[in-house]
Amino acid sequence: MKTIKVSFRVNDEPVAFQVRPYETLLETLRERLDLIGGKEACGMGACGACTVIVDGIPLRSCLVLTPEVEGASVTTIEGLGKDGDLHPLQESFMEKGAVQCGFCTSGMIMTAKALLDRNKKLSKKEIVKTMSSNICRCTGYKKIVEAVEEAASKRKSR
Amino acid sequence: MILPKFDYKKGVDIAAAIALYESSKGRARYLAGGTDLIPLVKLRLSTPGAVIDLKGIEPLRAVSRKGSTLIIGANVTLFELKTHDLARNYFPALHESLDATSCETLQMRGTIGGNILQNTRCLLYNKSLDWRTARGFCYKMGGETCNVVSNAAACFSNYCSDNALSLISLSAGVKLAGPGGERKIKLEKLFSGDGRNPFALKPGEILTEIRLPLKRSTGAYEKLRVRNAIDYPLLGVAVSIQDGKGRVCVGGIGPAPRAYDLKDLSASALKEVAKQARQEARPVSNTTLSPGYRKKMTQVLTERAVKRAMKEGK
Q1: Contact B230 A65 (CB under 8 A)
Q2: Are B179 and B204 in contact (CB under 8 A)?
Q3: Do B92 and B16 share a structural domain?
Q4: Which of A31, A74, A82, B276 is 20 to 30 Å from B84 at the Cα level?
Q5: Under an 8 A CB cutoff, do B230 and A132 touch?
Q6: Inter-chain CB proximity B53 and A48 less than 8 Å
Q7: Contact residues on chain B for A43, CB-CB shorter than 8 A
Q8: How far is A119 from chain B (nearest CA, A)?
Q9: Which pLDDT score, from 0 to 100, does residue B204 have?
Q10: Residues of chain B whose pLDDT is less than 70?
Q11: Which of A1, A58, A68 comes nearest B7 by C-beta?
Q12: What is the pTM for the complete model shown?
């Protein structure tokens, strides 16, 4: 089967690959770019561990074919904090102890980031609703919601 | 899970997408959000030779008014439609069903056309190829038996769209474009009633528009689910009331939704419809909840939804 040339941006850097037409964005990110923050858990779009942000929208990268993101801008967890300067969400996840086994964490943070980016004011109810897009099998939801609340309120006070 | 081999094509407009389909010898599938198709392909429940991406077709992404009709492009995402003022102000049943669909992240990817055309589901069908091979193929997989009900003559898979129910309660129509030209039909006519192949679509047809009469309504959507996020309805009931006339649509049980008209807005008409909905519901043990419970809840949720829709109207 013929490969397809795809060019897009990942964490503000332009990239271009010849990919298999049936290659998922998650495979491209993990195997070609070594961005292993996004995880494959269910592989069926149910759990959200592979969430990345594409043009401002959080997507399950295990359900996205790489040719579909031609020309798009992709942000992964690796694109958030740079050299010790962490994103407020990453800091609040650490402060609140919102990480247990850590497998869901990068997806959780990407879902939360997309939420903070698109909404100015957030109620706890809205946070719970959006964060229910992702599954944590350690069931540490309470602290995750607290961490997102904290990051949202910090952002306001800045 | 690794995807099998297939080719990727992009349709620049509807005619080009149909031409791509025609050149694929019937082995292509149209791809919109992919939240239904990609998992099916991963499980080898669908094995297309090529997928034809419809996302780049701009007219399919618009919500517009034409006279007294609201035209929703099939590629409008569930989240875009949910946050649209008209959906909230004119069609509360639709707004509630959109809000109840899966979770926010998937609402941002899944499209309204894809949500309507999602395949029917069964606890013993949506499984890996190894699992299904060990169990033996059922009607829906091309076999000659039903793995849920022994000696059944038909497939009992469940149609799990939340939004088709509210759209039917609002008397929606759909526009289809295919190799044989365009046609407009009522949304309920889209269903074949056969779980193996649940849609009365001709080969190569694309759902392009959902058309709604632009009339204010009151309404409600009730969904039976176990998790409150990222789950399919185990039963769904939508009700809309327009100009004093009510329409109820029940889904999540069996391969096609069932619609009922409310005779009037009296308590006795409500009881009658709820009872009829329960009697006609034929759940079998192919979901995580028992058939008996789902049957009983058909009456309960119908009453609940109609009462809520009436209250909103006051």
Answers
A1: no
A2: yes
A3: no
A4: A74
A5: yes
A6: no
A7: 1, 42
A8: 13
A9: 97
A10: 312-314
A11: A1
A12: 0.96
- One domain for residues B272 and B225: yes
Which positions in chain B touch A44 (Cβ < 8 Å)? 1, 39, 42
Q: Per the CB < 8 Å rule, is B6 touching A67?
A: no
Q: Is residue B269 a part of any domain in this protein?
A: yes
**Number of structural domains found in chain B:** 2
Which sign, positive or negative, has the C-alpha torsion B85, B87, B90, B93?
A: negative
Is A134 in Cβ contact with B105 (below 8 Å)? yes
B218-237 as b/e: b if 16+ CB within 10 A:
bbbbbbbbeeebbbbbbbbb
The CATH class, in words, for A4-79 is alpha beta
Query: Does B6 contact chain A (CB < 8 Å)?
Result: yes
Whether B53 has its CB under 8 Å from any CB of chain A: the answer is yes
Task: Flag if B104 and A60 touch (Cβ within 8 Å).
Answer: no
> Residue A140 is encoded by which pair of tokens?
């540490």
CA distance B116 to A21: 26
Share of chain A above pLDDT 90, in %: 89
Nearest CB to B105: which of A1, A22, A60? A60
B241 dihedral zone (left: phi>0; alpha: psi -120 to 50; beta): beta
Q: Is A66 helix (H, G, I), strand (E, B) or coil?
A: helix
Residue-level pLDDT at A158: 52
> Could you report the predicted ipTM of this complex, rounded to two decimals?
0.95
Q: Which two tokens stand for residue B79?
A: 């989240």
Residue B302 belongs to a domain: yes
B249 touches chain A (CB under 8 A): no
Contacts of A64 in chain B (CB under 8 A): 34, 109
Q: What's the domain range around B303? A: 58-117+157-313
Q: Which CATH architecture has domain A88-157?
A: Orthogonal Bundle (1.10)
**What pLDDT does A83 receive?**
76
Residue segments in chain A with a per-residue pLDDT below the cut of 70: 156-158
Element (H, E) at A109: helix A105-118
Specify the pLDDT at position B314: 59
Residue B234 falls within a domain, yes or no? yes
* Residues B170 and B204 placed together within one structural domain of the fold: yes
- Picking from A28, A54, A65 by the largest number of B CB atoms within 10 A of its own CB, the best residue to mutate is A65
Enumerate the domain spans of chain A: 4-79, 88-157
CATH of the domain at B23: 3.30.43.10
Residues 63-102 of B with CB under 8 A from A: none
Q: Give the C-alpha separation, B195 to B126, whole Å.
A: 13
- Note the pLDDT of residue B168: 98
